[in-house]
Hints:
single chain, alpha/beta, Mannitol-specific EII, Chain A, 6-stranded mixed beta sheet
Amino acid sequence: xxxxxxxxxxxxxxxxxxxxxxxxxxxxxxxxxxxxxxxxxxxxxxxxxxxxxxxxxxxxxxxxxxxxxxxxxxxxxxxxxxxxxxxxxxxxxxxxxxxxxxxxxxxxxxxxxxxxxxxxxxxxxxxxxxxxxxxxxxxxxxxxxxx
Length: 147
């Protein structure tokens, strides 16, 4: 299986405070890691998905995702916000864990499998607390290793 979590696309201290800022911060992270061939096209795909319904799923988690030809390598960017992000969801709950799934058009159902795997793990409050307690990207990567 593809190693969709890598240390260079994990941020242990997101600076964003809004949904738009976190989307930009995560896209920049993916772009700097060479995952995207066209960051603007990927951003457009992310916002097209967000228009369908918010990817804030509750429990302080958001999983923005898009399948797009601008993705050259499947990856999940991971970010932890210490102050919380106003994600504009109906519950007004601050988002603290962000997982941005980026897959290419040729990756068939990889984004759905990844979304399902993440969701199964993230419903566990102990798992979420372990992630939130991480201080750096290598600790986060270690916890995500079994997904």
